[in-house]
Amino acid sequence: MEKVFLEANIYIKVLFAAGMASMAFDFVSSFFTIVYQRVIYKKRRAKYDESYAPMCSIVIPCKGVPKNFGNNLRGFLQLEYPNYEVIYVTESANDAAVPEIQKILSEDSRAKFAVAGLATQNAQKNHNMLAALKEVSDKSEVFVFADSDIKPASHWLKEIVMPLQDSKVTVTTGFRWLVSAAGSVGELCHTYVNIFIYTCFCAVCYFGGVGLWGGTMAIRRKDFEDLGVADTWSRAAVDDMSLSTLVLKNRRKAMVVPACVTVTDDLLPTVRSTVLWFERQIMYLKSYQKALWVFPTLPMAVVTAGLIFLLPFAAIGSLLTEYSFWQLGGGMALIFVLTHTATAMLYPFLGKMPFFGRFLLLQPFLRLTHSASYLKTWTTRTITWAGIKYKLSGNGDVKELTR
Q1: pLDDT in tens, 232-281
Q2: 221 and 366 share a domain?
Q3: Mean pLDDT confidence for 193-204
Q4: Before 99, cis peptide (omega within 30)?
Q5: Does residue 361 share a domain with residue 227?
Q6: Which structural domain range is residue 94 located in?
């Protein structure tokens, strides 16, 4: 019995070592993102020419009426930038978004509208954006892509475009910062996943040169055409990950622009909706970056679940058996959870964090939802996005689409 336990204890130690390695990555990524926002990017930003203002076309795919929809759309026409146009696009002329778009068209001559029709071999969002690009001005030098569920700050366009004056930068990207209004478990779960992705993006983008968020992306028209983005999007299941892979493949560089991290209170309301949303993000990783999907993502998912479940197991086991809480691995599991909580304590340095006390208390559970999202991706090649099911090929192309 003692021998069996000692052997099991070795496995627990290995699990703990792997868990602390993953937590070290989380901590370093979070700390680096703080430094990047406050120091590194500001130094880069100071070197840019403030007068740089190429003609821009902003493409905004719309579906339905998300929270603050009208204000969000009008926000794109209230930007402090001298020369740009906005193209709103829907899949159908009967979409619920169309009445509000029609009002805006009558208010500002810079606004355009396109109807894409139904996608048959790529993501509907990609299909919509490609249709919108047919309406852009011949004078447009930069394509900017944005989601309709954010309202950009007045400086948003200037900031997202400015790094493109550097020929070494091919694509720029922003992100979103979620601010929970209700403090529910579902909203805090979505908040945590969002922050986790953002810190990973900042670190990977800086050191690896790539990492994009489809809610805010800008690329020079020439680079868009030279890289064959339209051809890739015509088959792909997603916009940002497919473009990110294309940039990486061609040894180009992307840049995260902290000034374009847009604050929003439009959060997913339930844990289940967040798990499904994050599962879709990991499915894209599976399709476009298989090496990252298998390693380090697989070890992180398994190790995290193992250590979090080990904590109550050790507590109960110490009461029912001759072994102590520490002998059963409880001490190691507790250290892992506390380290994870310490990493989360860095997040208020990145942005506003209401209900932060509750957010900290929920950390073990919030982290466990990552593992649930990840493990589900091993059993399917199908994603569901905005009511459409996409069956993906091994390289991320759409094989089959079901409405």
Answers
A1: 999 999 999 999 999 999 999 999 999 999 999 999 999 999 999 999 99
A2: no
A3: 95
A4: no
A5: no
A6: 49-291
Residue 26 has pLDDT above 90, yes or no: yes
Residues 149 and 223 in one domain: yes
Q: Is the pLDDT score of 381 beyond 50?
A: yes
Dump pLDDT digits (tens) for 311-333.
Answer: 999 999 999 988 888 888 898 89
CATH number of the domain where residue 63 is located: 3.90.550.10
